[in-house]
Amino acid sequence: MGIQRAIFLAAAALSLTPWIGPPAALVIGLALGLGGIHPYRTAIKRLTRVLLQTSVVLLGFGMNLHQVVRAGRSGFLYTSLGIAFAMLVGYVLGRVLNVERTAAFLISSGTAICGGSAIAALGPISGANDEEMSISLGTIFVLNSVALLTFPRIGALLRLSQEQFGLWAALAIHDTSSVVGAATKYGAVALAVGTTVKLARALWIVPMALATAMVKGSRVRVQYPWFILFFVLAAVAATYVPLPPAAFKGAAHIGVVGLTLTLFLIGSNISRPMLRQVGARPLLQGIFLWLAVAAVSLWMIQQGLVRL
User: Fold this and answer.
1) CA–CA separation, 230 vs 242, rounded Å?
2) How many domains does the chain have?
3) Is 307 part of a structural domain of the chain?
């Protein structure tokens, strides 16, 4: 156990250095997780969520408020249509593949809104048990990892502009962490667009949670994504507060480093037992749904039907 702790902590420290980017950090985490080298699996789950939200807020210091408002306003319509499309296709796939209803709903919600955050918020409200939560989260985390590693290459191959790529990543990648990781690799404009549109998409957790509670008759308290408000306040400060630009750039850089560590931790939480527990049918539902969302959103962006 002592050797495992040393290896894990050394890898975590390495992900904080300039030599390791988000994709590499995720791959290292995956290697440790699949290799069973994760002595802090239980404690890391809460830390990962807090670190993700804090890093996103810090990224706000690198944004211009006018760009944030423009991207958020333009992305609202596309996000709402995309969520409706993903939920409908996810429902059909769940029925066709005979996936358990609650797990199918959570996989669809995670794909439609914001991955693990949506599942964590909607799971208790929908009455999901531990097995259904694990299956849904495992499916989303696996596909999320694939997206981070493949999207920048696909974007470069298709010669997408930074604005196009940022929008595509926000609409087609599950979790905020992987959207930021992929967009960071693609460029600064892609990062600004991807982060803002993705956070606007994450706001749909609230109406989705309220609707689910009404249907299920649940009294579980809805968790509001308050960190998005702090992200906007950080952009306000970066735009209007008369401080040296280096101060805001430094805060934003810390956010990127924090996201890189977050991706390492997310990768390390994917284990062989998790993959076995997911099973073929939920994973197939997640894959087919993700491919449909990614393909349709990419086609619309390339045709100019979706733009900021």
Assistant:
1) 19
2) 1
3) no
Residues of the domain holding 160: 2-302
Contacts of 16 (CB under 8 A, 6+ apart): 257, 260, 261
Is 276's pLDDT higher than 80? no
Q: What is the mean pLDDT of the segment spanning 267-281? A: 78
Instruction: Establish if 110 belongs to a structural domain.
Output: yes
Asked whether residue 211 is domain-assigned, the answer is yes
The reply to whether 308 falls in a domain is: no
> In the block, which residue shows the tokens 């892609």?
190
pTM, rounded to two decimals: 0.81
CA 101 to chain centre: 23
Q: Which amino acid is at 78?
A: Y
Nearest to 134, CA basis, from 274, 38, 290, 35: 274
* Identity at 244, one-letter amino acid code: P
User: pLDDT tens, 163-218?
Assistant: 999 989 988 998 888 898 889 889 888 988 888 888 888 878 878 888 888 877 66
Q: How far is CA 56 from CA 10, 45, 140, 167, in A?
A: 24, 17, 20, 17
Q: Is 187 or 267 the better-scoring residue by pLDDT?
A: 187
What is the DSSP secondary-structure string of 126-195? Answer: HT--HHHHHHHHHHHHHHHHHHHHHHHHHHHHTT--HHHHHHHHHHH-SSHHHHHHHHHHH-HHHHHHHH
DSSP assignment of 166-182: HHHHHHH-SSHHHHHHH
Q: Would you say the C-alpha torsion 218, 199, 151, 273 has a positive or negative sign?
A: negative
